[in-house]
Each structure stands twice: as C-alpha cells, then as structure tokens.
Design goal:
Blueprint lengths: L5 H95 L1 H4 L4
Amino acid sequence: MAAMPLLTWISLLFFLAALIGTGTFAVLHGLRTWRAARALSGVAGPELDRISRGAAEAEAHAVALSDGNVRLALAVERLQRSLAQLAILQDAATRARATLDPRRAFPRK
C-alpha cells in the first residue's frame, strides 16, 4: 500500500474539522432557535388569550352601544312626537284662554 502524501492528510483533516465545525454550529444554533421558539410560544399563548378576551369585550361593548343607539333613536322619535303633541295642546290652550279671557270678550271702542 502506497503512503499518502502529507498534503492529502492535511486536506482530509481540514475537511473533517470543517464538517464537524459546521455541524456543531448548525446544531447549537438550531437548539437556541428551538428554545427561543418554545419560550416565545409560552409567553405568546397567554398574551394571545388576553388579547382575544379584550377583543371579545370590545365586541360586546360595541353591540351594547349599537343597541343603545337603537333605543336612543326610538326615544328621540317618541320625544319628537310628544313635542309635536305639546305644541298642538299649547296652541289649543292659548286659543281657549283667549276665548275665555274677560278682557277680550267685549271689543273696545
């Protein structure tokens, strides 16, 4: 068996060192990323639940506000009708007072 030149051995050792180094680098960064993702999901889960609850409460408030607006519109409509009736009654009362006022009952000369 022929002896391998020294340059071949050095190249082979460099190749193995580079292969092991990049593998180690990839594994370490992969583990760091995995841990960060787990930590993020552990923190993000409760926060997303809190945000979801807040959104549900905001939706409930919006629905209640919408219902309140409908009731307010109906109340304003009733108020307008009542004001119209009041104006008619005030006009009738004014006419009745004018008719019953003794000073106006007899015309002056």
